[in-house]
Amino acid sequence: MVGPAGVVTLRLLIAAAVLIAVWRPGLRWDRTTWAVVAGAGALLAVHHLSYYEAVDRLPLGAATTVEFAGPFLIAAVGSRRAAYLLWACLAAAGVVLLSASGPHLNAEGLGFAALAGCCWGGYILVGKLLADRVPDGRGLALAVAWGALLSLPYGIAQAGTRLFAPATLALAAAVAVLSSVLPYSFQLEALRGLSPRVFGVLTSLEPAIGALVGLLLLDQHLTMPQWLGITAVALASVAATRSDRGKQRNNNDTDAARSPVTMLDP
Q1: Number of domains in the chain
Q2: Of 84, 116, 129, 236, which sits with the fewest C-beta atoms within 10 Å of its C-beta?
């Protein structure tokens, strides 16, 4: 009805309005923080536009599989331990099994999906910086607002006045809250406590959860390879999280053992 760019524009505009109303961000930040905010917003806008263009040309499973290349590379390249590479490969294999689709793959759609994957991987890194620099949702609110402004010309060019039809706005509001406001807020909180490496692996849960929702609510039955894919993704996510916690615990124990207070204790 409004095209991929129209959906992205409405989604980001409404999400930005809600986040700004909730957090009421100020403008007195240093240049580095503004650069991080602008980078996060630009990555969100390009990711959304390219992913929706990919879905418009490819089966959803194929587009999601290619998009996962970004988080997969973050998980693989950012790791110095063989175990993390193993979990990342297991998660990637699970997504491939889960998202297996037909042979009709449009080359242009694959290009858009690859661009979306690169942007999502970049957002994980920049989002971690944003979470570290701004202790609440103010940075996210301005990042989404900047992404909305960047996408606005494309949305208007594709949808025109249909973009602001009452029925369209009502549906877009529900989509914005459920697929942008809540997920982005939770993801930013997760990035405060997780490394980009582990967060990259955990993002592979999204297609698995989507498949389960389709089964339970939409009566979309899964094949045995798809169930194997869900199992592989879940195992990789749990294993990567446990490995990261174990490493953090060992680092804390080492720091405590080296501290002057500990060395003075009888």
Answers
A1: 1
A2: 129
- Its domain, for residue 65, covers 3-254
Residue 118 included in any domain: yes
Report pLDDT for 264: 36
Cβ burial 62-100 (10 Å sphere, 16+ → b, else e): bbbbbbbbbbbbbbbebbeeeebebbbebbbebbebbbe
pTM of this prediction?
0.76
Q: Is 153 exposed, middle or buried (0-12, 13-18, 19+ CB in 10 A)?
A: exposed
CA gap 143, 141 in Å, rounded:
6
Task: Name the residue with higher pLDDT: 41 or 89.
Answer: 41
Check: CB of residue 61 under 8 Å from CB of residue 101: yes
97 in any annotated domain = yes
Q: Which residues contact 252 (CB under 8 A, 6 or more apart)?
A: none
Q: Indicate whether 261 belongs to any domain.
A: no
Tally Cβ neighbours within 10 Å of residue 113. Answer: 28
250 to each of 43, 191, 256, how far by Cα in Å? 35, 21, 10
